[in-house]
Task: inverse folding
């Protein structure tokens, strides 16, 4: 298992290199540069700006300069947010995204798995239909509808919670000062978790239904094991496999890509920097976030593979 | 007696309490400021914050008009070339360091230094040697500015340029504290490091959340500044901005979703502020290529667009139908009135048909071209509306959309036929619009090249006489518009939401609403 993990880590470095190189050149093929959206600038002004960011050099040379910086652990200056370096921007954005993303996915996994099991055990009964109906609604309602709706209800009308940013507000924070710092997290986490609850519960239900039909489950029941033990010890272990393989990339995605929710709630997370960076052609910022994102995906995939070995005896991590 | 004492006591306690309560003002701003270094910022997001932090030689009053700032007076030489500013006595930076004319000399040189890479260095190119310095051809010290003594600053121009006074009120006109910039380098704008000379100082900066300023006790007019703390909240999502405004998290919101206009008119009419600004929405004809190298084609299409109907039907509330490039809110200039504007639409359509036929376009040879616009719902509606108005003319117009950056690229390279464009002038002066259509101007994207026009503009740009200057520019605009070089359709209106308890707010075309002139009488 250790050698498997080491092998995977060894592949990670060249993978990252390829991702960075591809992103670098792909990004430069997008029409327009960082200063092209600013109308009516004199050519000399643009030349001065480009020189300040090495953008006047040939593309390949820019690439080498960038690789050199990355090798030293430096992501360079942000072209757009000149007061801070890309490293500083990521250092402020990543913790916010992690906090919100991980909480959302944790809550979503707990609720989703419970709902999925309940539905599977009551297959084709009313409970099943109700749970899956709710789950379908969760998938169907996009977060850019759900999030503003929630702010309208809980922020504008009931005035319970703050509408945006991570700063406390609303009557809930005033009534219970102890939990005030948590109040701004409530709505974003719910908005992020709901679609995930829906997906996870459907995955769990499908996998559980299949597992519950397996011979070894029948054997377990025939042996006279308690139903609780059959479900929790035997069925769930196999039934969770698809959920685990989904959760890996989902965590990476939700942490770095909660763009819509971050924009609507004005959260200072990575997703907003990523989109703003792409729109502004802020090359160093976009590349820096791509590197973080790629690292997260690679790491999560590795963890999933290792977990697979634990959950499924048929998968031997050494292979 | 006892009652009277009690009342007095309550009154005193009340007065003391209210005197101690900190007055906080929560403003929405468009997005996270790119940088608080005024010489490096691209404006938009940072200008609104910098206007509270920094003070140029000139500044803006509560109505947005240009008034004296750090200067207590100034004189201009008869030829309009030499400006001499006298600084107010006892000016200080917020850390107590005296602010002298040398600070302005340092700052003006820094703007032109090519390594500063200041976007708007070009605004100050009328100052002697500025352009050459910015091109790296001359040393910084050769810039036409000098400190005669600690309180006297002299600025020499190459050509008279009355707009320079307005330029001094904003980004490139702000001084930066040399002692701080040299000590901290790039980090000088960080909270704790940053030193300013305006009504406020930087207190705190939470990325993508807020910029907090607090009153600068060393500001020359601090006694008249009522608001103690200003928060700027970047709210690029307009729906969120509206919700935050409704919940009272914002006292002023910079914009709101266009589709909420009707709701706001019914439910918050007193908070809704719509006022014309310096923007113009127009279309570029590619004058250099067929079919629009033919004046008749340009004129026919321009005549056939019913601006008044459009402003009404597309619910462009507050926007004014445009037949001129320079908007009517530019007060130092008499707005151009196109002859076609006063003709009834039926007559205009008939004339348009006649012109097209004369140019050789008809049912067997329809005028064919692509109308390109940048991807925004309002632009798509506009494109469809215009195409519909042209239908009776029998033109074959194809609609195409591009990303904003692609529109800019096409403009620069002349790779278009008819394209949506907009211009928001940084200055309330006609020259800021009209200079863009001089033959050799880098921003003339139409291929329009007219010797009369160039002659009028260079005459306007070299006279120190304001009335004469305005007259020359007016003649130039007439040439521009009678050549139908561009097709203006409407002049923009700014949309603000301002709570009624914010006092002293005056809508103005330059969108200058400095916090130092406002007061908050928040209901308890």
Result:
């Amino acid at each position: 298992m250790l050698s498997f993990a080491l092998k995977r880590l060894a592949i990670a470095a060249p993978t990252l290199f390829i991702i960075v190189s591809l992103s670098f050149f792909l990004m430069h093929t997008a029409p327009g540069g960082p200063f092209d959206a600013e109308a009516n600038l004199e050519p000399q002004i643009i030349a001065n700006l480009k020189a300040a960011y090495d953008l006047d050099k040939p593309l390949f040379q820019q690439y080498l300069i960038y690789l050199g910086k990355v090798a030293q652990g430096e992501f360079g200056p942000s072209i757009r947010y000149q007061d801070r370096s890309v490293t500083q921007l990521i250092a402020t954005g990543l913790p916010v995204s992690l906090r919100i993303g991980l909480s959302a996915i944790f809550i979503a996994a707990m609720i989703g798995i419970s709902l999925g099991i309940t539905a599977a055990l009551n297959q084709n009964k009313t409970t099943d239909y109700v749970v899956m109906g709710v789950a379908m609604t969760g998938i169907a309602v996009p977060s850019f509808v759900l999030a503003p709706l929630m702010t309208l209800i809980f922020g504008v009308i009931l005035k319970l919670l703050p509408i945006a940013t991570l700063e406390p507000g609303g009557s809930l924070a005033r009534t219970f000062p102890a939990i005030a710092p948590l109040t701004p997290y409530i709505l974003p986490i719910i908005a992020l978790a709901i679609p995930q609850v829906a997906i996870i519960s459907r995955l769990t239900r499908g996998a559980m239904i299949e597992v519950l039909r397996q011979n070894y489950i029948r054997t377990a029941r025939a042996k006279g094991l308690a139903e609780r033990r059959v479900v929790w010890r035997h069925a769930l272990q196999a039934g969770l496999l698809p959920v685990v393989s989904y959760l890996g990339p989902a965590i990476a995605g939700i942490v770095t890509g909660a763009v819509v929710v971050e924009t609507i709630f004005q959260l200072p997370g990575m997703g907003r920097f990523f989109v703003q960076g792409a729109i502004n052609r802020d090359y160093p910022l976009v590349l820096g976030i791509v590197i973080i994102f790629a690292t997260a995906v690679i790491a999560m995939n590795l963890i999933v593979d290792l977990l697979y070995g634990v959950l499924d005896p048929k998968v031997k991590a050494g292979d | 007696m006892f009652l009277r004492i009690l009342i007095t006591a309550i009154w005193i306690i009340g007065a003391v309490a209210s005197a101690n309560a900190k007055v906080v003002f929560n403003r929405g701003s468009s997005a996270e400021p790119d940088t608080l270094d005024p010489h490096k910022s691209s404006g938009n997001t940072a200008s609104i914050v910098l206007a509270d932090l920094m003070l140029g030689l000139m500044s803006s009053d509560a109505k947005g008009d240009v008034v004296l700032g750090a200067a207590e007076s100034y004189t201009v030489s008869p030829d309009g070339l030499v400006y001499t500013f006298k600084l107010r006595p006892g000016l200080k930076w917020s850390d107590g360091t005296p602010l002298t004319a040398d600070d302005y000399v340092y700052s003006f040189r820094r703007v032109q230094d090519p390594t500063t890479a200041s976007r708007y260095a070009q605004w100050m190119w009328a100052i002697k040697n500025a352009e050459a310095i910015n091109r790296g051809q001359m040393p910084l010290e050769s810039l036409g500015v000098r400190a005669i003594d600690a309180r006297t600053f002299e600025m020499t121009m190459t050509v008279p340029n009355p707009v320079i006074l307005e330029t001094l009120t904003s980004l490139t006109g702000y001084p930066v504290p040399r002692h701080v910039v040299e000590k901290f380098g790039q980090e000088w704008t960080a909270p704790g490091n940053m030193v300013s000379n305006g009504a406020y100082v930087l207190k705190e900066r939470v990325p993508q959340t807020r910029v907090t300023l607090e009153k600068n006790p060393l500001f020359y007019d601090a006694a008249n500044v009522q608001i103690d703390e200003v928060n700027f909240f970047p709210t690029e999502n307009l729906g969120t901005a509206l919700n935050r405004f409704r919940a009272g998290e914002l006292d002023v919101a910079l914009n709101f979703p266009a589709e909420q206009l009707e709701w706001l008119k019914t439910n918050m009419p007193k908070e809704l502020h719509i006022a014309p600004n310096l923007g113009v929405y127009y279309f570029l004809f590619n004058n250099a290529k067929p079919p629009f190298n033919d004046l008749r084609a340009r004129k026919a299409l321009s005549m056939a667009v019913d601006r008044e109907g459009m402003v009404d039907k597309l619910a462009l509330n507050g926007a004014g139908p445009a037949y001129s490039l320079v908007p009517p809110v530019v007060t130092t200039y008499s707005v151009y009135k196109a002859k076609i504007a006063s003709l009834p639409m039926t007559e205009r359509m008939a004339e348009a048909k006649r012109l097209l036929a004369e140019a050789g376009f008809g049912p067997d040879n329809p005028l064919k071209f692509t109308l390109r616009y940048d991807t925004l719902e309002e632009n798509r509606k506009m494109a469809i509306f215009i195409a519909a108005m042209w239908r009776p003319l029998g033109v074959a117009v194809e609609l195409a959309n591009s990303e904003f950056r692609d529109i800019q690229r096409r403009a620069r390279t002349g790779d278009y036929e008819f394209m949506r464009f907009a211009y928001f002038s940084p200055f309330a002066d006609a020259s800021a619009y009209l200079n863009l259509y001089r033959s050799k101007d880098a921003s003339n994207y139409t291929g329009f090249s007219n010797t009369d026009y160039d002659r009028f503009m260079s005459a306007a740009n070299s006279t120190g006489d304001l009335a004469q200057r305005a007259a020359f520019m007016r003649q130039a605009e007439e040439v521009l518009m009678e050549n139908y070089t561009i097709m203006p359709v409407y002049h923009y209106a700014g949309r603000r939401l301002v709570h009624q308890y914010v006092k002293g707010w005056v809508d103005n075309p330059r969108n200058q609403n400095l916090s130092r002139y406002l007061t908050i009488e928040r209901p308890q």
Observations:
- Chain A has one domain: 86-311.
- Residues 161 and 219 of chain A are 52 Å apart (CA to CA).
- Chain A touches chain B through 50 residues (CB under 8 Å).
